[in-house]
Write a structure and sequence with these properties.
CATH class of the largest domain: Alpha Beta
Distance between the termini: 37 Å
Largest sheet: 5 strands, parallel
Order of helices and strands: HEHEHEHHEHEHHHHHHHH
Number of strands: 5
Oligomer: single chain
Number of helices: 14
């Protein structure tokens, strides 16, 4: 399978003549084909490959026809990656590393170890238990190099006496498959986009604009979606940015997604 995908990637080359690729290290149940297709669509000009093990990843380091740009690894491989990160990073000096986690305890561990080992600060986080629409927004920010930690990771850990509900991985996988196969663009509904009532005085329109900004929407597109003028959209966005204390639309999108993940589950 890997050899076939490598041959298929031959048509996507960078200026050095090699092929830019994203590597997803984990099984098909963790990273289904739909996830790979979404990553390719979001990045553009990059081929996504799935490997089952870190050993296969090390073998790939010898292939000079490929330039690995991103390495997404399943949280079950986190212990190995964190312990040997310097060695793995030396094999792929041009790659960004992303922990694709389902277990919050693994993501919390990374946050804790980052404080003691600055070298781990290069590892980004991508939660894998979200519906496809907010997950795609998170993916866009990760591809742009943004480090995002949801509120439930930063806050106190859950009591050990309370058993956490299992993460809805099948839901994400099913929705991703449907979206990829149908070619439809997911639109954030009110139930998904709704911010907590404790927001700092945001109006309904300002919340709607932030929701669309967090999906990567530009002002002109948002104006068309909301049947508003582009000037009005800019005004709503400016007011929202001022109220939440952000410096730009990227920080506003990060704030929105962090609040949504931490409090809007």
């Amino acid at each position: 399978m890997f050899e076939r995908e490598t041959r298929d990637a031959a048509g996507i080359s960078n200026r050095s003549g090699s092929t830019d690729v994203f590597i997803f290290v984990g099984g098909a149940l963790v990273f289904p084909n739909s996830i790979l297709r979404i990553a390719e669509q979001e990045a553009g000009g990059v081929h996504a490959l799935r490997l089952d093990t870190l050993r296969e990843l090390q073998s790939l380091a010898r292939d000079r026809t490929l330039t690995v740009r991103k390495v997404f690894f399943d949280d079950r491989m986190a212990t190995d990656v964190l312990r040997n990160f310097d060695r793995y990073r030396a094999d792929f000096p041009d790659a960004d590393w992303i922990l694709a986690y389902r277990e919050q305890s693994v993501a919390r561990r990374l946050l804790d170890e980052r404080a003691q080992a600055p070298r781990l600060a290069d590892i980004l986080l991508l939660p894998m238990t979200l519906p496809i629409c907010p997950w795609s927004s998170m993916l866009r920010l990760v591809l742009a190099g943004q480090f995002i930690a949801s509120g439930d990771l930063i806050g106190p850990a859950a009591s050990p006496q309370v058993k956490a509900a299992p993460p809805p991985a099948p839901r994400l996988q099913m929705q991703a498959e449907i979206a990829a196969e149908s070619g439809e663009t997911a639109v954030m509904t009110d139930s998904i986009a709704g911010l907590p009532h404790s927001d700092p005085g945001l109006t309904r329109r300002e919340k709607e604009v932030l929701a669309l900004v967090s999906q990567g929407g530009r002002n002109k597109t948002i104006a068309h979606t909301m049947s508003l003028s582009e000037h009005t959209v800019k005004l709503h966005l400016h007011n929202a940015i001022t109220k939440i204390g952000a410096r730009n639309r990227t920080e506003a999108a990060t704030w929105y997604l962090s609040r949504q993940l931490g409090e809007g589950r």
